[in-house]
Amino acid sequence: MPLLPEAVRRLAAWCAVVLLVSGVGYVGIRLCAELRTAVVPVLLALLGSALLRPFHRRMVKARVNRSVAAAVTCVAVVAVVGGAVYIVVAALIDSGDEIVASLKEAARGLTRHFGAAGTSLDDVASNARELLRKFGGTAASGVISGVSVVGESIAMAVLALLLVFFFLRDSDRAVDGLRAVAPRGTADTVEAMARRAFRAVEGFMRGTTFIAFIDAVCITVGLLVLRVPGAAGLGALVFVGAYIPYLGAFLSGGVAVLVALADRGFVIALWALGVVLAVQVLEGHVLQPMIQSRTVQMHPAVVMLTITAGASVAGILGMLLAVPLTAAAFGVIHELRERYTAPPEPGAPGTAPAGGS
Predict the structure, then answer these.
(1) What is the pLDDT of residue 145?
(2) Using CA of residue 191, residue 197, residue 198, residue 203, what is the dihedral sign?
């Protein structure tokens, strides 16, 4: 006679499974954090390959050599990304002083209307030099560490670009290599899981890029109508930020509102805010359900929790990688469910007999 009821034993078994999976996941995350200079370029290259594979495939179908097609694709990526970064940085540099001046003016307005609360904000702005002198040593060490971070980021970006080239060029050999390293008897399952995961990532990247393009165009047009300076750069910033679902577009739209406030005043800033909110409503209620439902089906709550977890693990980079990795995990789970959840037998209890009414 068992000492514990069946329900308690099942609960204990599930708890053991959860603890085991959590432990393995934690160890995996720690290893990825320690080896981030090698892991991050691989993940970025996989995302880039998923996004650029259709373009590369079209060139190969046009009888362009695979290496040449991969090289042309990488050069195009460098040109587009470099141009977007230049436009964004130039626009923010041109408007940076105006943004700071507008924030100071807002602090003075709070001082006039709300007394102590505004005074505290104004004091923070006026005493920035004293705070900087007080924490000068910390700031200097931060600059040094910042330089090393920039160098590491450039190295990882170059490595990711090279990996994109090799992933695109040798994508036809990937399946054979994967089947060769799969354990005996599992090659078909491993291949199916990999294909489903890559299709999920590819669908996410394709759908997100389309949504980001529409967001950027709508906000750029709105800013041009409002005659906000740097509208093209702000639109490019919105395009890049849209790869972090929900939060990225909100933050980049906030920058656009600040620029409008700095150059065109409070009323135009309100109109810019209205444009950003209208685009957010269009994205959340029309574009996301219509486009992403055909590629990756994840509830918005799952997306937000995933972004939060990614930010806590790896900051902005974690926010960028969290959703596509979760999409790949969902794809693998769906594939395993389809393979190992067999339909009930025709004569099993609870099923209607064949030909029955």
Answers:
(1) 52
(2) positive
